[in-house]
Amino acid sequence: MLKVAVFFGIGNYGPLHLARADALSKVPDIDVHLIELAPTIQTYQKSWETARDKLGFPLTTLVDTPYGQTSLVKLLKRLTEILEELDPDSVAVASYSPLPMLAAARWARTHGAASIIMFPSTESDHQRVWWKERIKRWLVRRYYDAGIVGGKTSRSYLLRLGMPQDRIWERYDVIDNDYFIGRSRDILDKVAGHRKRFALPERYFVSVGRFSEEKNLTRLLQAYRRYRDAEPDGWDLVIVGDGPQREELLGVARSLNLDDVIWPGFVQINELPIYYALSDGFVLPSVSEPWGLVVNEAMACGLPVLVSDRCGSAPDLVVEGKNGYTFDPYSVDAIADRMLRLASLDEARRAAMRRVSSEIIADYSLEAWAENMADCLRQTVARVRSYGEKPS
């Protein structure tokens, strides 16, 4: 058995994180220990509801206070204690920041364990500064033995940061496809009842995400205004989520006379598939999005997708004109054009797009993630062990 300590992020591990850990734990020769730094993140107002008492693998939370309210010294001390106690063969961390993530990778480097970076970033998801990039290249070369990435854009960026091609695996960004497929089928068996219960219109675009600047929802509202000006009887718009921009976005909608936009708020995973399954098309307008797992969710529910070309998933998941369209998120006209284009298609064409979405996303499954991650672990641990003693 290969023992691996997995750090998916800072805290508040939700259904997506737990599903990935569960899939990996089912690989016969992999012993998974999931670690989160804190139970919540101070800036997040909403939390996932998860049945953590029924997990099939151990989950350790290092401290009991929100991240940002805990002494970093205390957090690092606790992290070291847990790793010393577990003595894993490998440590897998989600990127090189914040500092505790890097500390876990450094612990692996100094204790003869393999260090794997789970890398969702792309070169274009933030404005890059040359000296910071130089530091990242040094960190990647010094502290990480292999990486697992979402797809083409994150692979390209990790290569640029110095990870050799043969030490990179893919399929990091996956969801529980079976859950979303099964739930959407159940929902579509009782369409009328669900529409009535959740007050959803007959035809609508859906967007799902946190209400923050990088999600670009202001431009989405502006584009939707132009779409409705061109199609007064067109589809409605449902925006699922919450966040610091909520009041600002509601004000934008009022100023644009978009009183019919539906705002369900933050939705737990047991109800989230309802908003996808009853929709006619999904929109993700982000100006910065390393991957965009909501695209996976929408496609698993069989939706055509309209995805910003700044989203890391776009080159892998969107086949132009086959299951959706991409667009420049800084152009309101481009977003409105794609909405008009999708809504103008006949039912047969949209049904074909739904089928292609389902076919594409089938390759981005929990099983694919677990198989690739397990292969990464086996090969990387074997290579590190062949050193005899890890080089400094």
Explain what this protein looks like in three dimensions.
The protein is an alpha/beta fold and about 400 residues long. About 45% of the residues lie in helices and about 15% in strands. The protein has a seven-stranded parallel β-sheet, with helices on both faces. The protein has a six-stranded parallel β-sheet with strand order 10-9-8-11-12-13, sandwiched between helices.
Short note summarizing the structure:
With 392 residues, this protein is α/β, with parallel strands linked by helices. Helices cover 44% and strands 15% of the residues.
Layout of secondary structure:
Elements: E1 2-7, H1 15-25, E2 30-36, E3 59-61, H2 72-86, E4 90-93, H3 99-110, E5 114-119, H4 130-143, E6 146-149, H5 152-160, E7 168-169, H6 177-188, H7 191-197, E8 204-208, H8 217-230, E9 236-240, H9 246-255, E10 262-265, H10 272-277, E11 281-284, H11 293-300, E12 305-308, H12 314-317, E13 324-327, H13 332-344, H14 347-361, H15 366-386
Parallel strand pairs: 1-2, 1-4, 2-3, 4-5, 5-6, 6-7, 8-9, 8-11, 9-10, 11-12, 12-13
Order of helices and strands: EHEEHEHEHEHEHHEHEHEHEHEHEHHH
Please give the alpha-carbon distance between the first and last residues. Answer: 26 Å
What do we call the CATH topology of the largest domain? Rossmann fold
Mean pLDDT: 94
Question: Sheet with the most strands?
Answer: 7 strands, parallel
Kindly state the number of beta strands.
Answer: 13
Percent helix among the residues?
Answer: 40-55%
Low-confidence residue ranges:
none
Using the 3D structure, state the CATH architecture of the largest domain: 3-Layer(aba) Sandwich
